[in-house]
Design brief:
The chain is built from 3 helices and no strands. The chain is mainly α. The relative contact order is 0.18.
Length: 87
């Protein structure tokens, strides 16, 4: 999703993530935790079975990409989904 293997991401989410990482060295760890909490929340909301794992993964990815594109996000804590960590 972030296209970090290429050395220079081409996706807008990857570019935005590198900007966040420059400001906060813990950005990757924080985003990792947010992504898993988001995936868990979507899994439970959809009452998904293991057969729907790929659908939940795709919707989680799409939501993370949308949130990373928000203009008012200057750090991972600014992501709307970050509040999932405090539940």
């Amino acid at each position: 999703m972030l296209d970090l293997q290429s050395g220079k991401p081409s996706s807008s989410a990857g570019i935005r993530f590198l900007e966040l990482l420059e400001k906060d060295e813990m950005a990757f760890d924080s985003l990792y935790c947010v992504a898993f909490r988001m995936m868990d929340a979507q899994w439970l909301a959809k009452r998904a079975s293991y057969m729907e794992f790929n659908d939940v993964l795709k919707s989680t990815r799409a939501q993370l990409e949308r949130e990373l594109k928000l203009e008012d996000v200057s750090c991972v804590r600014d992501l709307p989904a970050h509040n999932l960590l405090h539940r």
